[in-house]
Amino acid sequence: MSDEVIILGGGFAGLACGVALADAGRRVTLLEKKPHLGGRAYSFKDQETGDVVDNGQHLFMGCYRRTRAFLRKIGTEDRLSLLEDIRVDFAEEGGRRDALRCPSWLGSPLHLAAGVLGLRGVALADKLNLRKLDAYVRRVRGGGALPPDLDRVTVRQWMDSLGQSRRIQERLFDPIALGALNDKPEVAAATGFVQVLREAFYTDVESTRLGVANVGLSELYAHAAARFIEDRGGKVLLNSKVKAIQEGRVITEDGQTYNGTVVSTLPPWNLKTLELPARLRGHWENLKAAPIVSLQLWLSRPILTEPFVGLLGTEIQWAFNKSRLLSLDGEGQCSLSSSAARTSTWPATRRPCSSWPAATWHAAFRNSKKLQSSAGRSSRSRSRRCRRRRVPTRCGRRSASPPRAWCWRAIGRGRPAGDDRERGVERPEGGRADLGRGEAC
Ligand SMILES: Cc1cc2nc3c(=O)[nH]c(=O)nc-3n(C[C@H](O)[C@H](O)[C@H](O)COP(=O)(O)OP(=O)(O)OC[C@H]3O[C@@H](n4cnc5c(N)ncnc54)[C@H](O)[C@@H]3O)c2cc1C
Questions:
Q1: Distance of CA 98 to the CA centre of its chain
Q2: pLDDT band, very low/low/confident/very high, at 361 (cuts 50, 70, 90)
């Protein structure tokens, strides 16, 4: 095998692979088609506010052992913080709140059992019925392969088969499945979900902890990984779109040829568009993925006290308190996330997002208001005052509160059939659609 390795793609996978191989003494050439590294996990500087913005909120977990080892190797593990409290807050229509609190001193998986027992919105009978699911995950605990039949059923079918009530699914498991698999429980295969349960909740308490980057994603890993590769004699080449893979050789669109062992980290929908040797073609080409939409809001005041909140019964499942996560003073930067976003809230419209119907944005902001109104009396009255007064925003414009919202490209772990630009969710590189402000209130 040649010492030269050509890695296709400069996302998390390509850079992690490049670092491992460079560390093992191989000469790495990494080819990335975009002008920046990071793939679906990158950050950019917003020109208007000057803030570094991630292309979407990324949560890590203690059980991301390989990711953490990768960050350790490139010297940036300290830029990832694991939250001490294992607690997930939920909010729903009418301001009702619930919380999954898993006391770490109980150890794993008792901490999860205690968390579930403490959920207010789930009946005791449903909680006790979790024994069947618990018994299943205990059986497949450890690192071994999961039963192959899990690949033939969806998350919903698997949970139904274990007699789990719809209520506990909707209030506990669906948010986990949507967040971790970025698809609806009726669509996603059960394998990934069972893997998440066993890795996150049935290994050790540390594995359950949620982690967030305290810098932009590119600063978390992309720049440092590229430096690591280059310091060991490798090359990281941007604007190098691969056109063809041949035996031991890669050809880019600008006619360059690179020889060596080829490692592709391209998502299947990118890889299948290349000229490939016939023996590489196969069923993998049918793999599809689901979109995700991220909304970044700059509000004139904080609307959340928790680091993040799960939103039950909405198409926007998570609200992240960026001000708190990034220790920003004063302002209410927050990010909303909608997984499996091929649904009614994010219509498959052919119009660009800036012209989405006002109702769409109402749906998004209604959630923010619900959070405000559920945050207690004082914040409710403050919110009314601000709405009457029209407060200045961070960008120096005058607008009602919540003042302003921007949205940018937010392609999920893949995309459904069709061009995302037609679906109105993809923005140009680092670009965004200014949604204006009227609809917000
Ligand atoms: C908004 C959003 C939120 C997310 N939240 C989370 C989260 O909370 N937790 C989590 O664990 N995961 C999350 N994810 C998923 C996570 O970002 C991805 O799983 C991960 O970044 C995928 O990395 P990758 O390297 O496999 O692929 P990619 O990041 O897609 O990298 C592939 C790279 O290949 C390049 N490329 C494509 N074609 C070519 C070509 N022909 N030639 C050269 N280069 C090419 C692309 O430009 C890209 O840089 C989220 C994703 C999004 C979009």
A1: 23
A2: very low
For residue 343, what pLDDT is reported?
56
pLDDT at 435: 33
Q: Are the C-beta atoms of 313 and 121 separated by less than 8 Å?
A: no
Kind plus residue range of the DSSP H or E element containing 73: helix 65-74
Distance CA 411, CA 192 (A): 20
**Higher-confidence residue: 429 or 26?**
26
- CB of 412 within 6 A of ligand 1: the answer is yes
Residue 263 has pLDDT above 50, yes or no: yes
DSSP string over 8-70 = E--SHHHHHHHHHHHHTT-EEEEE-SSSSS-TTS-EEE-TTT--EEESS---EETT-HHHHHH
Quote the pTM value. Answer: 0.81
**Mean per-residue pLDDT of the chain:** 80
Cβ 38 vs Cβ 296: under 8 Å: no
For residue 17, what are its two tokens?
Answer: 């692979």
Residue 91's alpha-carbon distances to 166, 269, 304, 328, in angstroms, are 18, 36, 11, 23
DSSP string, 295-361: EEEEESS---SSSEEEETTSS--EEEEHHHHTT--SSEEEEEEESS--STTS---SS-GGGS-HHHH
Token duo for residue 398? 């005058």
* Beta carbon of 11 within 6 Å of any ligand 1 atom: yes
Distance 213 CA to ligand 1 centre (A): 16
Does the structure show a pLDDT above 70 at 345? no
411 pocket-lining for ligand 1 (C-beta < 6 Å): yes
Q: With a cut of 70, say whether residue 378 has pLDDT above it.
A: no
Set out the domains of the chain in order of their start, with CATH numbers: 4-79+215-286 (3.50.50.60), 87-208 (no CATH), 293-440 (no CATH)
Q: What is the DSSP letter of 147?
A: P
Q: Which residues contact 10 (CB under 8 A, 6 or more apart)?
A: 30, 31, 32, 34, 37, 38, 39, 222, 226, 236, 238
User: In testing the pocket of ligand 1, which one of 15, 58, 176 has its CB within 8 Å of the most ligand atoms?
Assistant: 58
Token pair listed for 197: 């349960």
Structure tokens at 362: 């109402």
* Whether the CB of 414 sits within 6 Å of ligand 1: no
182 within ligand 1 shell (Cβ under 6 A): no
